[in-house]
Amino acid sequence: MIFDSLIGLFSNDLAIDLGTANTVVFVRGKGIVLREPSVVAIHNETKEILAVGSEAKQMLGRTPGNIVAIRPMRDGVIANFEITEAMIKHFIRRVHNRKTLVRPRVVIAVPSGITQVEKRAVRDSAISAGAREVYLMEEPMAAAIGVGLPISNPIGNMIVDVGGGTTEVAVISLSGIVYSKSVRVAGDEMDEAIINYVRLKYSLLIGQPTAETVKINIGSGLPGKEKFEVVRGRDLENGLPKSIKISSGEIREALSSVLNNIIELIDETVEEIPPELIGDVLEQGITLAGGGALISGIDKAIAEAVKMPVWIAEDPLTCVVRGAAKLLEDAKLLDKLKVTGGLK
Questions:
Q1: What is each CA distance from 215 to 105, 192, 211, 257, 300, in whole angstroms?
Q2: Contact at 8 Å (CB) between 161 and 290?
Q3: 2-141+320-337 falls under which CATH superfamily?
Q4: Separation in Å, CA 46 to CA 42, 49, 69, 298
Q5: Fold of the domain built from segment(s) 187-254
Q6: For the ranges 3-7, 91-95, 182-186, 227-231, the one whose mean pLDDT is highest
Q7: pTM of the predicted model, to two decimals?
Q8: Is residue 3's pLDDT more than 50?
Q9: Are 2-141+320-337 and 151-185+255-316 equal in CATH topology?
Q10: How far does Cα 4 stand from its chain's mean position?
Q11: Looking at residue 36, what is its pLDDT?
Q12: Cβ atoms of residues 132 and 104 within 8 Å
């Protein structure tokens, strides 16, 4: 006990939003110190880690045969345990200036729909990466706390977190999740939808980084001022390089199926929650968080479809990690909200 206390004095506890697309790290006493893509570049033969984060993301689709850039998180969960462990270890050491003796407490936000096996994989990765204690909490609860919703009050708060791999919808009341649902339809599926649209309409093959850039620059949920983006790729008919100019209206059409899936998820949630809470949600509105909330007009498109007010959280990309960080300061709330199931 004394040894653990001494370690605690010399460690900076962390909150981590371990996302499919990006990893965000909050250090207690310092704030958000790292926001990097969840990408790792490794040597195919030696398995040596060559780059992590932004540097590795720049290699996506551009690596020679002996190097591969990997996204070890898929659909919000660990797809490659060893690479995820290496990535977490890299980020922990980086935020602690590579001090290997530091053993922090870590709060990690995870999708509400992950299995016990997946929870164990996340926890074991963090322990192997040097964490002293690991606590898991559900992403929608973390996002709600980060946004500042009155989660402890006897009213219904609905939050929709559109991340890279999953979209989470939850209704929270009295510091508990009354109902939640997670679907693996989010930012990655939006990128795939754009790739498929461009391939079918223009016989042009583009990569995921290009699709993501187009989504960010001209993606939208509702018609507005027409914008254009030049897209470069490979002509599927002759194999040569080709450029096209694509409009925001076309990208909106490409994204419509994914947006409809998110709207269906919200409708299903409304059907499942008690009538009293529906009245609260109508009054409070639906809160949008996650990177998907940054798509122009997505809030208005959802509001129009579900006939409820929708508002976008301040800095939606960091809501989850800011909520997880608040639990580092509140041991009682942390103990109450941590994910159970044999995990400490």
A1: 36, 11, 6, 14, 17
A2: yes
A3: ATPase, nucleotide binding domain (3.30.420.40)
A4: 8, 9, 14, 44
A5: Actin; Chain A, domain 4 (3.90.640)
A6: 227-231
A7: 0.87
A8: no
A9: yes
A10: 32
A11: 94
A12: yes
